[in-house]
Amino acid sequence: xxxxxxxxxxxxxxxxxxxxxxxxxxxxxxxxxxxxxxxxxxxxxxxxxxxxxxxxxxxxxxxxxxxxxxxxxxxxxxxxxxxxxxxxxxxxxxxxxxxxxxxxxxxxxxxxxxxxxxxxxxxxxxxxxxxxxxxxxxxxxxxxxxxxxxxxxxxxxxxxxxxxxxxxxxxxxxxxxxxxxxxxxxxxxxxxxxxxxxxxxxxxxxxxxxxxxxxxxxxxxxxxxxxxxxxxxxxxxxxxxxxxxxxxxxxxxxxxxxxxxxxxxxxxxxxxxxxxxxxxxxxxxxxxxxxxxxxxxxxxxxxxxxxxxxxxxxxxxxxxxxxxxxxxxxxxxxxxxxxxxxxxxxxxxxxxxxxxxxxxxxxxxxxxxxxxxxxxxxxxxxxxxxxxxxxxxxxxxxxxxxxxxxxxxxxxxxxxxxxxxxxxxxxxxxxxxxxxxxxxxxxxxxxxxxxxxxxxxxxxxxxxxxxxxxxxxxxxxxxxxxx
Length: 483
Hints:
With 483 residues, this protein is α+β, with helices and mostly antiparallel strands. It has helices spanning 13-16, 95-102, 114-121, 146-158, 164-183, 190-199, 203-206, 213-218, 221-231, 247-258, 307-319, 326-334, 372-388, 393-411, 417-430, 439-444, 448-458, and strands at residues 54-57, 63-68, 74-81, 125-130, 135-142, 237-243, 281-287, 294-300, 342-345, 359-365, 464-471. The protein has 2 domains: 13-258, CATH 3.30.830.10; 281-419 and 431-471, 2-Layer Sandwich (Cytochrome Bc1 Complex, Chain A, domain 1). Helix content is 38%, strand content 15%. It starts with 12 loop residues before the first helix and ends in a 12-residue tail after the last strand. The protein has 17 helices and 11 strands.
């Protein structure tokens, strides 16, 4: 349930009393079969395979995606709510993640701990995560436990147990996560919290989504109920089942267990748009725990799903993904400024599972003997070359092959979680889970000329934010010359 691992209008218990599901879960059957947790490799995946996709919508608006695959006797269930960091109200930073924790604290027919016991007792695993535009809950279980898991998720959707004690307990858990993962961690939230805050103008994209401690302390039970009422409901959710199951039987269970939950009210309107950035931004943070300076550069992405978006995905492969990438070659192998370069589109997920403004990011931790100017000179030269000089068709094809191998590797794992995540994202954001079988079309349309045009607009200095991590002296001051 940690943010680094990976929320829709609901109805109060009084309203839902008339549509309560059965008080006891269905039998999970023989518990000797353990859920698979291994993963396949991209090299083993044929790029011409087709994912089985069956798409339905219940009368209450719940979108249901079923994907049969009988190769492993397990089923993966994912419930995705269309609410994430961007939906948090002002003064309640970190609330989406805090509420994710609350949804694990029990429901009307499954008191605290019973949900986990149900999953683990069947030989399965479960978890959840909060991201920019969704919150998800998922389980991987033996196929004979699927009916019970669906019942449990329906009970959680309809009747979460929200009380003061659980709120206080989970507030402390989240506060501890903030200390462990950010405040007491070298480089902490540098690239995944601080950079978006510096790069974006709209508060919904630019606040501390892990949570300011004062905001977490101020969160009340009334806030939790309001958040649930606004965002947690069938009309703002997607349910995905992938794996070894009978389609008609499973759809019948879903209609029976979820179909009577009220749809919920219309979602509050939230403007998450960002203005076009015209001038380069610079920012720095001081890190008492870091032992080397660091540098992050974030460029605003083209809108998701556009030709330029697919071109940026290819540019990402060319510039930062893999030891043969251009920035790795220039910064690491040629100049020796750092031991590695990393980055990508959507560092808290992937290039597909978000639905708003996003950054393409480059990050590195460099030796203290080199200055930011040294590193930026090399980075700029590498970026400028790809903005002005044609990329060969062979380079484009190699990048496209790497990208598609990554994509197919994501969907072809025995846990099926990557598959469920993509199906849910395409249903939630595009109302089109079948897009998973057409994703290659966008990459195939990327040409060297489109790459050049995209790089000229989106990799210009005026579209980026440069964030330094500076070291502090033992007395806590910034070393001379770094002001």
